[in-house]
UniProtKB/TrEMBL annotation:
This protein's UniProt keywords: NAD, Oxidoreductase
CDD domains in UniProt: GDH (cd05301)
UniProt xrefs under Gene3D superfamilies: NAD(P)-binding Rossmann-like Domain
Domain D-isomer specific 2-hydroxyacid dehydrogenase NAD-binding as annotated: residue spans: 111-290
Top-level taxon: Bacteria
GO molecular function: glyoxylate reductase (NADPH) activity; hydroxypyruvate reductase [NAD(P)H] activity; NAD binding
Gene Ontology cellular-component terms listed: cytosol
InterPro entries associated with the record: D-isomer_2-hydroxyacid_DH, D-isomer_2_OHA_DH_cat_dom, D-isomer_DH_CS, D-isomer_DH_CS1, D-isomer_DH_NAD-bd, NAD(P)-bd_dom_sf
Protein name in the entry: D-glycerate dehydrogenase
Organism from which the protein derives: Candidatus Nomurabacteria bacterium RIFCSPLOWO2_12_FULL_44_11
Record flagged with keyword NAD: yes
Length: 323
């Protein structure tokens, strides 16, 4: 019987598929990501055939050496930068990922962060819970309305495009965008206007939402210099990757009222936060959960199961990411 180690709890539907196929499945009991030595110690307890790591598990030569019986690492994540692919390929170990449909979920989360920060929802929620509400007050928590505003989308790939469509069709927003590739679909279908640089997008927008991948060219794409170009009434939303924004510069801009607010799902040094960020009331923060919807997470669990089944039934796993 093939045995599988899943490093932390994932939705049961994927585990059920594997058990029904006769696999022996063990799920790690960690509540937070294990360190690599902890993971290695656990893996050495049995001659596992498969490991299902999460994005937080670093898989490299140290793990490959410790568990030579494992021939497939079926990552429970669309990203796979946690795994040394080159080394896995050298050792003839398969690596797979879970490219499910997270696009609407992340785009919706970006819309939610934007609405929440403009309506000052997090601040108002804390106020009510703290028993401070003394009755209706026309001046209480005055926010901003989204209708009629100009929103800049930086990166109009899968998520950025979906975000632009939701805002232009449902909220009466004018979309401007910057991407290294022109997106004619949103120009035609959403009336989106292409601008020729990030700086121009930041200068014109009432709100900016970032949807680029983390690359050497996008590291600190939002920085002290271009934050200074934003309107003082503008908002910044980031659901892409933390290091795309210089978080220290952002904290300063928020502290000084250089911009009005920010909604962040990702952090430059996550799970650590830049000093000063948690004290800022003009932010809404979520712990990297933009794609955490039950439907998406269950779809990923099913994809993991199918990749493993493909492998042991002699097919190339449908989401194999290495050679
Ligand atoms: P995608 O590849 O479909 O789109 C990315 C877009 O960014 C492309 O259109 C590309 O041309 C553009 N781009 C690349 N470099 C650029 C640059 N220097 N300037 C401007 N545009 C540039 O990616 P996607 O699936 O839409 O994902 C977007 C981001 O969302 C990624 O960073 C991804 O990691 C992140 N993401 C976050 C979560 C979450 O839970 N918060 C979940 C899934 C994805």
């Amino acid at each position: 019987m093939k045995s599988i180690f899943i490093t932390r709890q994932i939705p049961e539907n994927g585990i059920k598929i594997l058990k029904e196929k006769g696999y022996d499945v063990t799920v790690g009991k960690y509540k937070t990501p294990p360190t690599q030595p902890e993971l290695i110690e656990e893996l050495k307890k049995k001659n596992y055939d498969v490991v299902v790591p999460l994005l937080t598990d670093k898989i490299d030569s140290a793990v490959f050496d410790a568990v030579p019986t494992v021939k497939i690492f079926a990552n429970y994540s669309v990203g796979f930068d946690n795994i040394d692919l080159e080394e896995a390929t050298k050792r003839n170990i398969a690596v797979t990922n879970t490219p499910g449909d997270y696009v609407d979920g992340v785009a919706e989360h970006a819309v939610a962060l934007l609405l929440a920060i403009m309506a000052r929802l997090a601040e108002a929620d804390q106020f009510v819970r703290a028993g401070k509400y003394q009755g209706w007050d026309p001046m209480l928590f005055m926010g901003d309305k989204l209708n009629g505003k100009t929103v800049a989308v930086i990166g109009t790939g899968r998520i950025g495009e979906r975000f632009a469509r939701k805002l232009s069709s449902g909220f009466g927003v004018k979309i401007i965008y910057y991407d290294v590739v022109r997106n004619e679909r949103i120009e035609k279908e959403c009336g989106a206007q292409f601008v020729s640089s990030v700086n121009e997008a930041l200068a014109l927008a009432d709100a900016v939402s970032i949807h680029v991948p983390l690359l050497p060219t996008t590291h600190h794409l939002i920085n002290k210099n271009n934050l200074a170009k934003m309107k003082p009434t503008a908002y910044l939303i980031n659901t892409s990757r933390g290091p795309v924004v210089d978080e220290e510069a952002l904290v300063k801009a928020l502290q000084n009222g250089r911009i009005r607010g920010a909604g962040l799902d990702v952090f430059e040094f996550e799970p650590k936060l830049t000093k000063g960020l948690v004290k800022l009331s003009n932010t809404v923060l979520s712990p990297h959960i933009a794609s955490s919807q039950l439907e998406s997470r269950e779809e990923m669990a099913e994809i993991v199961a199918n990749n493993i089944i493909d492998f042991f039934e002699g097919r190339v796993p449908r989401n194999k990411v290495n050679k």
